[in-house]
Model the fold of this input.
Amino acid sequence: MDADALLLDLNPEQREAVLAGDGPMLVLAGAGSGKTRVVTRRLARLVREGADPRRIVAVTFTNKAAEEMRERVAALVGRRLPSFVGTFHSWGLRFLRRAGGAEGRTANFSIADTADQIALVRESMEELGLSEQTFTPGAVHARISDAKSAARSAERFAAEEGDFAGTRIAGVFARYEKKLRAANAFDFDDLIAVPVRTLRGSDALRDRERAGIEHLLVDEYQDTNAAQDALIKLLGEKARSLCAVGDEDQSIYAWRGARVEHILRFEEDFPGARIVALTRNYRSTATILEAAAAVVSHNRRRRPKSLVSEAGAGQAVEVRAFRDDRVEAEWVISEIRRAERPLSEFAVLFRVNAQSRSFEDELMRQGVSYVVIGGMKFYERAEVKDAIAYYRLALDPADDLAFRRVVNVPARGIGGVTLDRLAAAARERGVSLFEASVDAAGITERARIALDRFRAIVAAGRAKAEELGPASLLEFVLEASGYRALYAASEEREDVARRENLIELVSAAREYERREGEAATVRGFLDAVSLATDADAPRPSGAVTLMTLHSAKGLEFPDVYVAGLEEGFLPHVQSAGSEDEIEEERRLLYVGMTRARRRLTLTLARQRMLYGETRPRQESRFAAELPPSVARIEDASRPPTLFSRGEDEEDGFRWERTERSRLPPRRPAPVTVARRRAAVPGALAGFSRGARVRHPTYGSGVVLQQEGSGEEARLTVFFDRAGKKKFVAKFANLTPG
DNA sequence: CTGCTTCACCTTTTT
DNA sequence: GGTGAAGCAG
Done:
């Protein structure tokens, strides 16, 4: 593709964004407006026109977005790939490792995950005698995380928060920071906040870093928190070009510290900035866009704008009310079956994960394959974290977080009392728990012997860390620690699942080695794991997708159902407190609606099972913001219990009576439930019957059938050479073949 | 120190 | 309804 070809299939606005020269630019990229195309073409154009790829940096929010961007740019420029295309957090991680650590950490620092963070907060609270009745560790952690998201240090927090709660939280904050430092660890927020502080604190470092970045590109700018915004300003202010891409209507992470203001104030922050608006939508029909726009236009904190559909009028958007959540689910799934289109064209979106249950029940009952995005995450499972903890200790015995996690797993007779004494000794002498365990006073003979044995295990792992690769090291620590034996004997469901998860983790390490080749390191695998999420897995074909509205951002489906258009969900009960929160909930609905290409249906239940009891539900206030073109249909299969008809007719809405969907369940139907596989850092896939697959040992084959449900779903695969084999779908380690 | 039972809670979750 | 944490017995 030559330079002109890069522009050939672009509209004038897209072209402008791709061609814009030096200086700051904000690309307002409405839903479905071809944002990724613009971004990748722009990067390719810079490289083609002679910019040094080593001085081009592109930052995204998700691994998945980064991966997609990298692939698409690579397709255009080959090996002249920009030096960094990755997430904010991976940029920060790389920066801190290159800097050889910071703020008291060595280059070998580890990353504390969410559970580690909460544990440290809890400990700090205990030490300060703060009752968990007054503040839960989770709530205190949230306050600390908020502060860090704004790059506020513990000291600044203490100086600024003077009220009762503030002073107490400040105390915990300070202690928490000390513990993190003692553990040679950073938390997720530090990966942004610490680079910001470091760059602010050193002119030399800042100049050096800036010199390495000629062109900077930031995706999803509306989701930046204050720390990320500060980072972009530090790095981008002097850059030759800074390109920020975003859409304030799709800002749905304010509760995690994201601020719409960053994108709304871009022109003030970067005077003379060029603004390019991509207003042509290539995804949704005009009818869908009109409905979505009508809702979001009620927001005040936005730039007034409109998207124009390039996809024709299409069919009417529908709002359908049902007697209860069961009927809602039954209708949606029947409707999906009735359409007789590939299941992967359908998505059911909801506000809270708990809503997935009624849909899952119904999908299983009707024998329809589905995937649930989200839920219990692979890397949050206890056995996976335990295994990783042993791995971490092999890399750094001073990793107190890992030490605490597994010092007594499997049980070695080292309990809370011993650990408290160790912690006290460690604090006093300013050493790690591992170090303190060598000769801590006041420890029982029994515990001392157990600790000696534990240290021997860690030492052995440490010795091996030098010579073994990521996968072999993992295998070694699992054996040496006796951790694998812990679950080896039992045939209980849970234990079998644990064993399989451990196998899957080792496969993840192998996959990492394969992908990185020469560049694969023990540390590198751990970093990849620390930043990996389940969102990295691709969607399987042949299955209906179920997920939250949040998870749906960035995706699109021909046919979308947004379920639970009710007060309490949209807006969520706990997010209806302020106008800002309501606006975010409205954007959430907007994001959900704009996922649909051809057909959009919003559903609600008049009553639903919630927290174990049946509750009456009211239609969402947002329903009244939909335009008259939206068809409103009351499901007449059973008499509505809580519905006042007269009022609604005056709204000018059109009401129709419909037959309740009564498709007979497809029997005998194979219940083909495709569950998500663990998000190994790297590519993954789900499989359905007939799919060609490849197994590392057995070679290529074809999926004969899936059976069972949920986590236990099993795949039968017929291999060309090895014949028929059965796997647990989630752990089969298959790749598309 | 461990394992069991009872009790309170309940969003969203890119990293 | 289902989970995680605290409290208590062995």
Remarks:
- Confidence is low (pLDDT under 50) at residues 639-686, 707-714, 718-724 of chain A.
- Chain A is about 45% helix and 15% strand.
- Residues 533 and 685 of chain A are 15 Å apart (CA to CA).
